Amino acid sequence: MVCVDHDPVVRVHNTALLATDDRVVSVQADIRQPQAILEHPAVARLIDFGQPAGLLCVAVPHLVPDDDDPEGIIAQYRDRVRAGSHLVLSQFGSDSDPDAMGELRAVAAGTPVETYFRPRHRIRRVLRRFRTAAARPDRCPGVAAGRHRSHPAEDRRASAGNRDAGARALTSN
Questions:
Q1: pLDDT higher for 30 or 158?
Q2: Are 171 and 87 in contact (CB under 8 A)?
């Protein structure tokens, strides 16, 4: 497993946590530079791109500005993995619940990063060439609504007796 983050403090923290397992590495890099990540020596050592792999783009695409072509960035990673690979992608949706969007904007307002909400049709474009597995078949295949909760205690209360509670991720293969 390769964990990638551009923040040097996160990399140091991850490296300390992962130091006991040589099958996991932390790489300091920018997701907007796929070639640098895909060709990084630690990535080459751990990931056999001749075999199916898992690609987790969680809590990242919504931080990439439109001018940086987030769909094109994800496509470069997608194009590198073999058929049978899996993609998990989370992206704030611009057609989401307005109250949840307001909460997420409020959280992000106190940080130096900007968040970008995108409509479902743009999120679907990222999924081209992947077969989607719907989190809920009665909804748009592959694009599942998630719920934002601001406190872990809310998660526990919401999930008590409710097997469908909690955020859902977009899953593809």
A1: 30
A2: yes
